[in-house]
């Protein structure tokens, strides 16, 4: 994918916000090359309703990623939609939201993937750039750790460890590609524990949460009648979150992201640390990387 990509036409969907419980209408529109992913809060009466999907605008990572602009316009729980854009290689989109939160849908990225596939994508006459990792950048936060490492094959390697018999220790390495994202990662749902539900409600969170948009774990195990979509769905969802959070860098990251017990907080800390160390990365054209991976491919057509 060497050229920038946007939508072939406008797409519309609606759903419930996972944390607000509010019904939200979302409209995805094609955007000019170089625009990037930009959210617009169409329900707000403020001077600037546009919120670029950028790591430096993240102001909250409490059970989701929230971005806020200088006028206070905010959008929460952007990570599953951002993962869908990243997974399919979508660069430029205007996301209109009539509400404060991206709809949860089924708690994964798959509904967004299917919406984008149904809508169709188109390339634009502008080169696609990426962030190539040149040297390790490592961070830690509250018992969690993450590192960016140079790698010709972009990948995300995640391990988790929960004091829960169903989850326990899980590890998964995902070598990034659109087909791989769709088959291995996109359908993995967010998850939560029934015992924490009341405290989350008191904190103003999970008001829209249900077994329709999350895996619910109780003392007996998985409460959802349909069970799990993957035996290791939990670690796959952590990779999904990381794919979305890392795409807030503004471009694909060409390297290995390795994380232990990651969450939205450390994902954002890692991206901030990477972007702050300008000796650790450089901009590259995707066409150059394609040629590096398979010399002569461009010449062969």
List keywords for this structure.
UDP-3-O-acyl-N-acetylglucosamine deacetylase; Ribosomal Protein S5, domain 2; five-stranded mixed sheet; 301 residues; lpxc deacetylase, domain 1; 21 strands; UDP-acyl_GlcNac_deAcase_C; 8 helices; globular; alpha+beta
Alpha-beta classification: alpha+beta
Instruction: Determine and state the CATH class of the largest domain.
Output: Alpha Beta
Number of domains: 2
Estimate the helix proportion, in percent. Answer: 10-25%
| CATH architecture term of the largest domain | 2-Layer Sandwich
Count of β-strands: 21
Q: What is the global morphology?
A: globular
CATH topology of the largest domain: lpxc deacetylase, domain 1
Strand content: 25-35%
Give the low-pLDDT segments: 295-301
- In DSSP terms, counting alpha (H) and pi (I) runs of 4 or more, how many helices? 8
